Amino acid sequence: MKPVTEEVTDAHERPAPAWSSRNFRRLWRGSAASTLGNEVAEIALPLFALVTLSASAAQASTLRIAQFLPFLLATVPAGLLVDRFRHSRLRLMIGADLGRALLVALLPVAAWTGTAGMPTLYVVVFAAAVLTVIYQIADFALLPKIVSEDQIVDANGKLAATQSAAEIGGRGIGALLVQALSAPVALLLNAGGYLLSAISLSRIRLNAHTAQPADDQPADDQPAVRVSARRELLRGIGFTVRQRFVRPLLGEAATFNLFNEILLLGLMLYAVREVHLSPVAIGAVFTAGGIGSFAGAWFGARFTARFGYGRVLLVTLALGNGAPLGVLLADQTGSESGLLALLCSIFVVMGIGIGIANVHAVSLRQAATPEALRGQVNAAYRLVSWGAIPVGAAIGGVIATQADPFTAMVTGAIGVSVSTLWVALSAVPALRSIHDAARP
Q: CB under 8 Å to 418, separation ≥6 — which residues?
């Protein structure tokens, strides 16, 4: 039986909740602090570009490309790094937090000294995103070593619910800070979140099974390392493509991310440049999405036992991915308040569906992937799914520039709704229990 870092209940008893693990609570606190800062930046960063630096539609698109291009370029090397130094994953996460805190703190300093510009913003955002890739891949591979298999869904649910709660508070706080003070001040909170995350993660104590052994170093024979790295990468990609549950999740995630980026870019440009919504109003829209995500992530697991794992995943995906079609009515609202009410309603429904689906999808991927392959498989998964984001940003920028932001917004909404077909036409809906996913 695979060892875990905390005590596990008897097989005939109900598994202990994830909160019973001290290490999980420390991981949760770090994730909460980091996510709160991230959500503040989700509002502050585009407004910093559009308002403080007067960025054009093309520059806003380039900023999003810089923010997510590392998920295309750095995911595979980061996955190999995480698996090769699998006993140093925690230290990789702490180092990534400290690096991101320093980089983000440079932006308000540059703004206050008059040296800020879009090229500087591109470089800083790109470098911070590289560290984010390392952090997230290490985090995905570390969680199953902190909690037992029976606690994974509970742990992911709590992490996802916390992320949604941070989205509720973070984007609202970010919008208020931008409105009352400035975008640079809001970015300082982002840097502080990374710093608090590093402090909390540094308190995690792993047992002897996960402590770093003496041979946890790259071999001196570099050609052998390169051969091994290629073999590991091919194994990860091959598993991702062949696994009947992971493959459709990957297709849905990549399609969703590509078109969701077009949707969000069009929405931001439409709201700021054409409708002239205030930062607080824009923050309210994203906060509404966070409320929906929190409700879905926190209570979604209760539906699984009654309706089946796969059915819940499919229905909630259809709900969340179909909600953005409501933007087709944006031009018919007739007033700013009507548009705000429509967008908030869309994001609440979208949040509920995606909040439930994300918990189930991440847990399904973890259960279906052997421990030794989790870093490689997650790297391959993110290479495609997150790599679609900069592609979507580029396409969205072209549509918004050549046509208009509303057209970009509608195009994104239609594409997001279609992404559900990947799961609907797969083996996932027939999955009754997550434990069935681990069977060959």
A: 255, 259
Q: Report d(CA 138, CA 77) in Å as an integer.
A: 12
Q: Band the pLDDT of 412: cuts 50, 70, 90.
A: very high
Q: Which of 3-12, 157-166, 192-201, 209-218 has the highest mean pLDDT?
A: 192-201
Distance of alpha carbon 129 from alpha carbon 142, whole angstroms: 20
Min mean pLDDT across 28-32, 113-117, 232-236, 354-358 is at 232-236
Domain boundaries along the sequence of the chain: 21-211+228-438
Contact 288, 169 (CB under 8 A): no
Scanning 69-201, the segments in alpha helix (DSSP H) are 70-73, 75-84, 89-112, 118-146, 152-180, 183-201
Going from the C-alpha of 332 to that of each of 329, 335, 336, the distances in angstroms are: 5, 9, 11
Burial grade of 407 (CB within 10 A; 0-12, 13-18, 19 or more):
middle
Q: Where does residue 334 fall: left (phi above 0), alpha (psi -120 to 50 degrees), or beta otherwise?
A: left
Contact 420, 322 (CB under 8 A): yes
CB atoms < 10 A from the CB of 122, how many?
18
Q: CA angle at residue 61 from 58 to 62, to 5 degrees? A: 85
Rounded to two decimals, the pTM is 0.69
SS3 call for 414: helix
CB 257 within 8 A of CB 380: no
- Pick from 170, 62, 163: which is nearest to 122 by CA? 62
Superfamily of domain 21-211+228-438: MFS general substrate transporter like domains (1.20.1250.20)
**Ramachandran sector of residue 308 (left: φ over 0; alpha: ψ -120 to 50; beta: rest):** left
Which carries the bigger pLDDT value, residue 133 or residue 434?
Answer: 133
